[in-house]
């Protein structure tokens, strides 16, 4: 298909035409800058402005059948790739950005995204998938490379993408049971510090702690506390402490004794290597049970922040998902933590 060419027309005849270059306005001593940018589609109300900046003639692209302007092309791309809980901004220089319309977990179909970006002259850029985002955060942008693109290329995109590839999944409000192990806490030798941290973290994610049970390092006591929360209808159970290989750390054994099927023990995430993930049958259905190492108590960002939002979004996390966290699972412990807007785990 032939490419569009430039032509010169009188400004009065320019409505609907596409500018080939920026139009600059100069106000001596005050401002100098573009009043209209390249690619702008001239509107009736623009004519007076153009005349006031001394433009009686314009260079515009000569329209050709089968060509689509960049703003219209970006809108078509958004209609194809954007799924639930996304808000589209107005086009700006041919680009439309997408922002989260609610707090939730951003999920992106990365293989299909890669296929879209391999079509040529069509680009969709996103932040990393499977991270918790707050309402209003920009998560993606889309545009075409040329000012005008062939309609046929957009139709190829529309045929390729069978379902939206970018969406935000709201987090459910879960009832969380906390089992805190350790004889030093159980017998009152030290004050528990894990509970307040977890209550704060779950509150930020929109969930509520239904209770916290302190147990010694005895396996039957911890297993019984886990079983109690399963019977009470907990949607998620976290067991804190005792996750190392020390002979007094018996939490993994207690989790198994409670009837939990362990999917993964150990994670390629620092902080969080001694993490345990399992599932058990409970009054609320199939309930995730997490063994949390002590680092969750001390570090603002840890394995907790990479796994729990996925579970609250309704995703089943597998051993393969945990293994995949190794790429991006190293926290560099910045002096000022920027989580959740940081590269850790992304």
From TrEMBL:
Assigned keywords, A-Z: Magnesium, Metal-binding, Molybdenum, Molybdenum cofactor biosynthesis, Transferase
Cofactor annotation: Mg(2+)
Keyword rRNA-binding belongs to the record: no
Pfam family, one: MoCF_biosynth
GO process annotations (BP): Mo-molybdopterin cofactor biosynthetic process
Catalytic function, reaction form: adenylyl-molybdopterin + molybdate = Mo-molybdopterin + AMP + H(+)
GO molecular function: metal ion binding; molybdopterin molybdotransferase activity
Pathway annotation: Cofactor biosynthesis; molybdopterin biosynthesis
Principal EC category: transferase
EC numbers on record: 2.10.1.1
SMART domains: MoCF_biosynth
One GO CC term, this protein: cytosol
Reported function: Catalyzes the insertion of molybdate into adenylated molybdopterin with the concomitant release of AMP.
Family label: Belongs to the MoeA family.
Protein name per the record: Molybdopterin molybdenumtransferase
Lineage start: Bacteria, Pseudomonadati, Thermodesulfobacteriota, Desulfovibrionia, Desulfovibrionales
